[in-house]
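>> received
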Amino acid sequence: MPSKKGSKYLNAKTYSVLSKYTPEDIQKLLNSGQFKSVIARTLGVYIGAFNVYIREHNLTYKAPCQIRYGKQYKSKKKEDGITAKMDSIDEEKAVKCFKVQFEENKKKRTLQELKDAYY
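>> returned
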């Protein structure tokens, strides 16, 4: 049965689950570094009801930082020191291999264009 209009929680189960915990316990969970949705899922409550509980008890939550990959962000592999530096010999070999593959692809593409010319 749906909740009454104006009630704070979505159903009685959510209220009973959240009533088992003190605001201090919930604050510890929020400070653990997990996302709110993960915490709500482990407690077995709806995220909307969990957000209402947080607002109602004036709890604080800081979202964990997400590692992003791109030019402006540091790579996780570089931070951990997992990547090994390539030797100059390996770099030269890689460049030569790339050039050979590039030329082969260029030849294939040119032949395909000549074969399928739409002039």
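>> The chain has a mean pLDDT of 76.
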